[in-house]
Amino acid sequence: MTDADAAGDAGEFQDLEDLPDDPTDREYVERTIRLSEEAVEAGNTPFGALLAVDGEVVGEARNETRTEGDVAAHPELTLARWAAREFDADELEACTMYASTEPCPMCATAIHYAGIGRIVFGVDGETLGELSADVVPIPLEEVIRRADGDTTVEGPIAVEAAMAVHDDFFREP
Ligand SMILES: [Zn+2]
Q1: Which of 1, 51, 60, 76 has its CA 20 to 30 A from that of 100?
Q2: Which domains does the chain have, with CATH numbers?
Q3: What is the pTM of this model?
Q4: Residue 4 alpha carbon to ligand 1 centre in Å
């Protein structure tokens, strides 16, 4: 089911050796926070996400809204679209998406449409909303619930670490 060439569409595999053999949710989220830093280094806003199946990372993505001139180039949407093309329904159900920040309603809807089984995020949108006016204040869990979806939502689990990157980026000097 893993196809490294196809996964390249969703982002590069990079520094994955930093992850232990059997990463915890926290370690996966820390990896997405690293991806959010890499997004900033590339000229974008600080958001990163990855997809894992059976403990293996099958795709990674960084925000590319600025460099692509694409308001929809959120990493969670990139991965949801990629996974829906690559995997069947059972495989999607077995996927966990990790995100540095709670996915926005656009991405939440795509995660639901794709049928991804579980999502875990670092910091909640409400906390980020204290820094950024761009947050649409509809919780991921509410989108999934109102869609009568089956995706399990867990988070926030790494508020301080994820917000440190947002603080550097969004905080007025
Ligand atoms: Zn989004």
Answers
A1: 1
A2: 23-171 (3.40.140.10)
A3: 0.90
A4: 24
